[in-house]
Write a structure and sequence with these properties.
about 150 residues; mainly alpha
C-alpha cells in the first residue's frame, strides 16, 4: 500500500498467516501458538483503538467509529472465550472459526476501503505524523509485552 497504515497492513498479513497455520494444525505446540495469536490480536486491536478509531471518528464520523469499536468488542469477547475453553474442543473450534471470519472481514474492509479513504484525506504531514504515532505505539507495546487488556 505504501502509506501511513503500512504497520497495520503488515500486521494483518502476519495475523492471517498465524490463523492459517493454527487452522491447518501446522503448529507443533498449538496451545502456545493460540496464546501467542491471541496476544498479537489484542495488541493489534489496541493499536487500532488508539491510533485508527480517533481518525475514523474525525474523518468518517462517530457512527462509523462506533461500528469499528463494536467490531473490536465482538472480537475481544471471542478471544476471552477462547482463552477459557479447552483447546480443540467443539466449542473452541466454533469460536475460533467465528473469530477468524470476523478478523478476515475486518482486514479486508480496512485494506480495501477504509485505509485508502483515510489516506486520501490526510495531507502528507498528517500521514507522516500518523505513521510515526503507529510506529511509536507498536514499539511501546512490544517493549512492555502489552496484551491490549
Amino acid at each position: 500500500m505504501g502509506g501511513p497504515f503500512d504497520i497495520l497492513v503488515e500486521e494483518h498479513h502476519a495475523l492471517e498467516e498465524r490463523f492459517a497455520r493454527l487452522v491447518s494444525s501446522a503448529e507443533p505446540e498449538p496451545l502456545s501458538a493460540q496464546r501467542e495469536l491471541l496476544a498479537l490480536l489484542r495488541q493489534h486491536t489496541w493499536l487500532e483503538e488508539r491510533c485508527l478509531q480517533p481518525l475514523v471518528a474525525r474523518v468518517e464520523g462517530r457512527h462509523r467509529a462506533r461500528r469499528l469499536a463494536e467490531e473490536s468488542l465482538a472480537m475481544r469477547e471471542l478471544m476471552d472465550e477462547l482463552e477459557e475453553l479447552p483447546l480443540g474442543s467443539a466449542d473452541w473450534q466454533a469460536r475460533f472459526l467465528a473469530l477468524e471470519d470476523l478478523w478476515a472481514a475486518h482486514f479486508q474492509e480496512e485494506e480495501r476501503a477504509l485505509l485508502p479513504r483515510l489516506t486520501t484525506v490526510l495531507d502528507p504531514q498528517e500521514q507522516q505524523v500518523l505513521s510515526l504515532e503507529l510506529t511509536r505505539a507498536r514499539n511501546a507495546l512490544r517493549s512492555r509485552g502489552h496484551e491490549g487488556h
